[in-house]
C-alpha cells in the first residue's frame, strides 16, 4: 500500500504532467508497506480520474471519467494479461520420469542406434552408396526408448510410417523439379498417407524430407532408398527396442492397459457416485476434442481409474484390511482330504478355505466351486463313503486339496487400504481375498461382505464427525 503521507506528493508531481507513464514510474519507485491494509485509498487527480491503491499483491486500477479512455485502458490490461498467459505456455512441462527411467531411456537409445550401425556394417553385399545411418533413425530412437507407451512409437507406426514417407519422398523427388515444392508436397503427402494407414510417426516426416534434399547419393538410389537404408534400419531399430524392453521389464509393444476381466461398467458401479464414468463417456469426450491426444484410450482410461481409486483411498485412508478382515480364518493344508475340506465349509458356513504350508504361508485357496468341479454331486457324506471304499493308494493324490485348489491366489497385506480392494472384487471377480502379515503368513481373510461393512462403518463415522 502507498502510505498516506505520500499521497499529496504523488498528486502534486503527477497532476501537471498529465502523463500516465509518469504516474506508473512514480508508483513503481514507491516502497510498498502494509499500512492501511484492507481498505483502498482513493487519490483524486486532475481531469476527473482517480487512482485506486489496493492492498499488497493486488494490481493498481486507473478509473477515468472519460468512457473512451477507460475502455482503452481496460483493453490494454486484458491484452497484457492475455500476452502473459500465452507466453506462459512456452514454459517447459516438468518431466515426471524418475532418474532410473531416464538412464534406461538413454541406454536404450545407445544400444538401439549401435545395433542399427552394426547391422548395416555386417550385411553382406550391401552397396557402398547406401548410407550407414540416416538421421531420422535418431528421432525414432527417442520415441522408441524415451516414450515407448506413445501410440506414435509402436511397431506399425515405425515401420509403416517410415516406408510410406520414404516412398512418397522418393516419388516427389523424381517427379517434381523444384526442391522446395517437392519437399512441401512430400511432407504433406506423407502425413496424409500416415493418417490414412494409421501409422503416424513424426520422424517419418524427416524421412520424406531426406528423400528430397538428401543429395546426389540419396537421389541416385531412387526407390532403393525405401528398401535398403530405411526398411533395414527401421527393422534393426525395432528389433533392438523389442529385445531391450523385454530385458528391462517394460511392455513393448504397448497395446494399452490390460483390460479387466469384467466389464468396465462394473468398476464404475463400485466407484463413488460423483466419480463414475464408463468407457463410452471417455470415447465420447475424445471425439469431441478437435485435436489428437498422443495417448491410447486404454492408457487414459487406466490413468483415470487409478486417479479415481486414489481419490477414493484418500476418502477412506483411515481404514485398512486389518480392521475389516475376519481374523483366525479356517485354513487347511495341501494334503487335507476333500471330505474334511467339505465338512469345514459346511460346518462353518463359509465358501472358501485358504491353503497354507507348514510356515502358514498361503499357497492356494479352495472354494465350493472348486469342489463342485472336482465332484459335481459331492457331499461330505458322499466323499467320506467314496474315500472309504477306494484303496488307500488312490485316496491320497486324487481326493486332497492340492488336486483342486487354485494356486494363483491374490493376497493383500494387513496394511493395505480397503479402497484397493474395490477393483479386486469388482473387476477381477474375486469373492475372498486372504490377508497376510509382514512375514507373508496368513492373518485373515476379507470377503465382499466385510468390505461393504467396513465402507458403511467408515461412512457413518465421517457423517457423525
UniProtKB/TrEMBL annotation:
Domain of life: Bacteria
Membrane-spanning parts: 106-124, 130-149, 156-176, 182-200, 207-224
SUPFAM superfamilies: CBS-domain pair (SSF54631)
Keyword hit for Methyltransferase: no
Matches recorded under CDD domains: CBS_pair_HPP_assoc
Domain CBS: 325-381, 405-461
Keyword line: CBS domain, Membrane, Transmembrane, Transmembrane helix
Protein name (database record): Membrane protein, HPP family/CBS domain
Protein's organism: Burkholderia pseudomallei (strain 1106a)
